[in-house]
Amino acid sequence: GGIAVISNTVGKNKTTTVWTTLAFVAFALASVPIIMDYFFARHRVSERGMDYGRMFGQRGSFVWSEVKRVRYAFVMKWFAIDLHSGSTVRISAMLRGLPEFAHMLLLHVPRSAMDDEAYLLLRDTEEGRPPSVWG
Question: Of 24, 29, 61, 99, which is least surrounded by CB within 10 A?
Answer without folding.
Answer: 29
